[in-house]
């Protein structure tokens, strides 16, 4: 019941977060660059990092030309930029990137030749291409960010799945230890019965032959009897040692079983909690897949 409530709340939180997602929107506006009011295209880029986006924008403008972007008071200018997605001819670009809380605003003005700017005109293909150029730049930056966010969440999910796999392996290993040590205890107990019988027999034989020694006169027969008694004593020591080893094996096996029986319930609790966390993380990962697909669908 508690697990269901937690999952329900998580779904609601993810849904609310999804509804709050900002779109990428491009629009035209008059923009002031220096002392001039120029026709420009403005686009917002949600969530992305300012420095990374600035570097990407400068690289976009400088690619394919020897010209370099000049920056003055946050205004960027490049003369002779090669932007084949807009026009085959070199263009001058005046642009600005501003940080606005949870998003950036990118403003760009394109000058085809002196005092001739790209601006919204009915059926103007150059304007449509310029707008697409700026919009696609913003959209691709957002896609890169969401891809990274998705990767982070997928890595968390994989780590949880690995953790569950490790717990499953541990539990399987402990159950295997219980079975193997239970068999070992059974085997050692059977062995102890045989060893204790042997000890009883050799102890009785020692008493008997030591008693005989007390009545025997010195000589070859007594020497042989003493040798035999010593062999019985060695056999008794060996049997006692074997009994001790068997008892130690039983003690160690019993401790292993007890430890496993105490640990398995804890591992079971960890497994259940990890499964819950996996279910929760799967919802988070899916929310980022949805977010990515939503960004890709922006037009």
Task: List the topology elements.
Elements: H1 2-19, E1 26-33, E2 36-46, H2 50-62, E3 70-72, E4 75-81, E5 91-100, E6 103-113, E7 116-117, H3 125-214, H4 220-296
Antiparallel strand pairs: 1-2, 2-6, 3-4, 4-5, 5-6, 6-7
Helix pairs in contact: 1-4, 3-4
Molecular structure report:
With 299 residues, the chain is an alpha+beta fold. Helices cover 66% and strands 17% of the residues. It is built from four helices and seven strands, in the order H-E-E-H-E-E-E-E-E-H-H. Strands 1, 2, 3, 4, 5, 6 and 7 form a seven-stranded antiparallel β-sheet that branches. Strand 6 and strand 7 (116-117) form a beta hairpin. The chain is rod-shaped, with a radius of gyration of 42 Å. Mean pLDDT is 90; it is low at 1-19.
Helix content: 55-70%
Poorly predicted residue ranges: 1-19
Between the first and last Cα atoms, what is the distance in angstroms? 43 Å
How many domains in all? 2
Nearest-integer average pLDDT: 90
**Radius of gyration over C-alpha positions, nearest whole angstrom:** 42 Å
The rough form would be described as: rod-shaped
Helix tally equals 4
- Which structural class best describes the helix and strand composition? alpha+beta
Q: What is the third-level CATH name, the topology of the largest domain?
A: Helix Hairpins
What is the CATH C-level name of the largest domain? Mainly Alpha
Q: Total strand count, please?
A: 7
Strand content: 15-25%
Profile the largest sheet.
Answer: 7 strands, antiparallel
Helix-strand string: HEEHEEEEEHH
């Amino acid at each position: 019941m508690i697990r269901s409530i937690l999952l329900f709340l998580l779904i609601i939180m993810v849904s609310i977060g999804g509804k709050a997602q900002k779109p990428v929107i491009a629009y035209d506006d008059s923009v002031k660059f220096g002392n001039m009011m120029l026709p420009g295209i403005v686009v917002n880029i949600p969530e992305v990092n300012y420095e990374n986006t600035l570097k990407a924008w400068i690289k976009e403008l400088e690619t394919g030309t020897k010209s370099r972007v000049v920056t003055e008071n946050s205004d960027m200018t490049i003369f002779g930029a090669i932007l084949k997605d807009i026009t085959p001819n070199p263009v001058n670009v005046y642009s600005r990137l501003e940080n606005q809380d949870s998003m950036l605003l990118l403003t760009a003005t394109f000058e085809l030749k002196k005092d001739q700017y790209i601006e919204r005109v009915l059926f103007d293909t150059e304007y449509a291409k310029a707008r697409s150029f700026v919009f696609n730049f913003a959209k691709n930056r957002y896609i890169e960010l969401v891809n990274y966010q998705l990767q982070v969440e997928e890595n968390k999910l994989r780590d949880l799945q690995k953790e569950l796999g490790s717990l499953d392996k541990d539990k399987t290993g402990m159950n295997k230890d219980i079975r193997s040590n239970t068999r070992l205890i059974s085997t050692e107990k059977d062995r102890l019965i045989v060893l204790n019988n042997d000890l009883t027999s050799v102890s009785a034989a020692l008493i008997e032959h030591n008693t005989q020694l007390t009545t025997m006169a010195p000589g070859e027969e007594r020497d042989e009897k003493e040798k035999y008694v010593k062999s019985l004593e060695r056999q008794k020591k060996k049997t006692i040692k074997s009994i001790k080893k068997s008892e130690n094996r039983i003690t160690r096996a019993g401790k292993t079983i007890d430890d496993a029986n105490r640990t398995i319930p804890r591992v079971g609790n960890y497994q259940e909690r990890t499964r819950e966390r996996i279910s929760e993380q799967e919802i988070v990962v899916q929310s980022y897949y949805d977010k990515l697909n939503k960004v890709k669908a922006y037009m």
